[in-house]
Write a structure and sequence with these properties.
Keywords: Membrane, Transmembrane, Transmembrane helix
GO molecular function: carbohydrate:proton symporter activity
Radius of gyration: 22 Å
Subcellular location: Membrane
Main location: membrane
Number of strands: 0
Number of helices: 7
Shape: flat
Structural class: mainly alpha
Pfam families: Sugar_tr
Largest sheet: none
Number of domains: 2
Order of helices and strands: HHHHHHH
């Protein structure tokens, strides 16, 4: 009997927190430790921080040609997307969002998380 109590006792606090719906609160604390996306940093004109973040993510120095090339590719993609969106109507954007595979995948990820 005493052995069973010893085994169950460490599980009581996590079970109680979960029962109260506190697990999302605990999981949300992780958001303070997640780095900002290099792509988002480029979107808000923080190029140096994007380069530093990408170099940490890839494990390469900032001046590595692969990091530089990826930054340039992301900047070109951001510019191309901004140009496409500025000339498109709401219906065209909605159609592309829900029919093109990469964009549809992004929508699915955002809805499911």
């Amino acid at each position: 009997m005493a052995t069973r109590q010893v085994l169950i006792r460490p599980l009581l606090l996590p079970a109680f927190i979960y029962a109260l719906g506190g697990m999302p609160v605990i999981w949300d604390q992780d958001i303070f430790f997640i780095e900002e996306s290099p792509r988002w940093l480029l979107l808000v004109n923080r190029r140096e921080e994007a380069m530093a973040g990408l170099s940490r993510l890839r494990g390469l120095p900032v001046d590595d040609p692969r990091v530089q090339h990826e930054i340039v590719e992301n900047e070109e993609d951001i510019d191309r997307t901004a140009e496409e969106v500025s000339n498109a109507s709401f219906w065209i954007i909605a159609k592309e969002t829900f029919t093109k595979s990469p964009k549809l995948r992004r929508v699915q990820h955002s809805v499911l998380t």
